[in-house]
Amino acid sequence: METLSRMMTRAVEGGLFSGSQVGSLDNNLLHISHLLFADDTLIFSDANPDHILHLRILFTSFEAILGLKINLCKSEMVPVGHVPDLERLADIMGCKTAQLPMNYFGLPLGAKFTSKAIWDPILEKMERKLAGWKRIALLGKWLWHFGNEREALWRQVILSKYGTLQGGWTYGDVSMPNGVSLWKNIRKDWGTFSRFLSYEVGDGTPV
Q1: What is the DSSP letter of 73?
Q2: I need a labelling partner for 101 at 20 to 30 A (CA). Which of 23, 78, 79, 200 fits?
Q3: Given this model, what pLDDT does residue 39 score?
Q4: Against a cut of 0.90, is the pTM above it?
């Protein structure tokens, strides 16, 4: 999968297809073309037929080089918003079409995230496993990862949306109406988390 990832990155750099833009004009923009999950790959592209054709050719080249098979028959093309000629694009790729909302690895995609009914099944599972102290420990763990995993993609997405504070140890307030509630709750625990931090002057290398 690493080879396929590198090929897609080079294709984006060469203008053969485009990814998705994350962030706002006030912060650094981040472009994401694909995400890897074990044997699954989630690809972001515009609805340009030429770009879809380039992707199909890239997949064919990958199969020829490594002798591996990409099962496009089990793949789905999912539009975000109105996409004209969706069936034509799917024919070019040789895959099926699907519609949002849908479940991906047990998580709802495209659903109204403020709808309590959407998250109830997930929250019930988490509540059965996490007591109150475990919840605080989990949020603190994410804050620790945020401060240490400087190159992680998820951290770059958060920085592009909310900016950074405290020398990169936390991010800005998630105050906008469409801010994701998960990151709002994690950010709220920064005060508790920061009381247990101590700083030491070093030689300039990262912690």
Answers
A1: G
A2: 23
A3: 80
A4: no
